[in-house]
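question for whoever is on the cluster today: can someone run the full assembly for these? two chains, 364 residues total. i dont have access anymore since they changed the login thing
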Amino acid sequence: MKSKVLRIVLIAVPLGCVVFFLYMTFFHSSYEHPGRYVYMDHCASCHGEKGEGIQQLVPPLADADMARAQFDSLPCWIQSGMNGPVVVNGRTYDQPMYPTTITDIEMTNLLNYLATEMVHTDRHYKSEMVEQMMRSCRR
Amino acid sequence: MGFTFGLNFDIHLPAMKWYLYLSATLLLALTACTPTPQPRLKVLGETIIHHETVGGHDRYDTVTAVIPPFHFLDQLGHQVDTGTVSGKIYVVDFFFTHCPSICPKMKAELHKVYEKYGDKGVLILSHSIDPERDSVATLRKYAEKLNIDNSKWYLLTGEHDSLYAMADRYLAYAKEDKDSPGGFVHDGNFILVDQKRHIRGYYDGTTDEGTEKLMNDIELLLHEK
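^ ran it for u. tokens below:
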């Protein structure tokens, strides 16, 4: 009777540790994309923490077809703002987007964050590319 | 086996069982008989001390602060006044449609309150602090974008001075400021007002936690008395 309990304990405890370790590694990771911080500071107030947008006031960014199709235009839109109606995932939105001042490095992190975790496109940027893109839209 | 645990549960189990049954029954009886005391939200704002002399004696009476009468125009151009909110719980905030900073987030948070309590008679009054640009037509467009029912969530505009005076009465901060993004500064608070126009709470409208707290307090107000 007692050897059975002991055996169960001896198996269950290490197994529990392994499961806990795996859970913490894969599902409870504290890693955050560096672009996430830029997003939270400059974008989330309107576009939402998960990129869900606000009703028909602010378009979503999560899986947004417009952002995916014109991803290279994002640096200039973010930097200079936007006006006039846009169509995102079949719905029309018409609220001005305000210019944002962020550095080239922040923009690079932000774009890579948006590409991998929000818009879902295989684009990847380096800061030299982004610097050039941002300079091209400066008036 | 040479290995023993300090406790043998088999021995204690029957006795434990009786103890558990007894305490469970007691606990049930206790919760059924004692009413859980409902926390009551404080009335906020400055109290007025009313003084009168009756038969040579000084009499003092404290009167709780009440939101004074008001009238503004909503997104349809209809008048919204003290009568509109009479006997109703309502939530107040200050915003402007061109606001680039906290207003959109506040509207997203307020939308949760609207979805949950709009059908339960709770009204929302969002005052514009930029009446020059926020005409009835502009507010109407904004309301359409927010997908809101015009009889449950009012976007208000009116005389510049009366809007700012109203902000003062709700103890909210709203000022014109050319150096701020959008040209105005205001706090990000939601203000909860009860059926008798007493202020009952302030909540950070820019966070999920603030909104949760507000909805919790609305629940308390709905079941008050």
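summary bc i know u wont read the tokens: The CA atoms of residues 71 and 81 of chain B lie 4 Å apart. The longest strand of chain B covers residues 48-54.
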